[in-house]
Specification:
It is a single chain. The protein is of the alpha+beta class and 195 residues long. 29% of the residues lie in helices and 22% in strands. The strands form two sheets. A five-stranded antiparallel beta sheet has the order 2-3-1-4-5. Strands 6-7 form a two-stranded antiparallel sheet. A hairpin with a 2-residue loop joins strand 6 and strand 7. The longest helix has 18 residues, at 83-100.
Length: 195
Amino acid sequence: MTYFAAIGIRQIQSYLARSRHLWGRRGASDMLAYLTATAGPDIAPDQRRFRTAAEVLEDHAGVDFDRDALDVDSIVNVRGEDHDAVARATKALALNIKLHLPAAHVETTIREGKTYRDVIRAENAREVTEHVEYPPTRIEFPLAHHCDECSSGMASRTKNTPDGELRLCPDCLSRATDNGRNRLLDKAQFVPQVG
């Protein structure tokens, strides 16, 4: 039998909406596209601080991308003959996404079948599967200041920007630029006049 795994980001729009820095920008999910890329990115390895899904999968012999699966943004489909190898690769891919986007909600599933068509049938029939979730960090008792950008993570450092000093979580800090936030956000702060 073959084991089929899917690694995906759930509620992607709510993740993007929590990050004020991303509001109004086209291509806001570029980092997700890079992290789930099945081919090498257009950024040289010495100019980036992340590994693509293809680079992570190189460390897991016997596990390959499932070319029969649908090509859906922010979902990586892999397959292999050894359950333990597929499970290790699935976990490594999920943790790679969480390392760079800790506020994202990542979930994985592993199903056994002869073909990818069997996986689709099992999903449609809502059959039980191996399912693991890597939810965003929840804040129960905040001992620090909330992030000034996303308000969901705890601020770990401050960054000086043209908009002033911002206290940012690691996720927002990784996307912070020296140029300030998107100027479309400034327009969105005006209250529209009705009537």
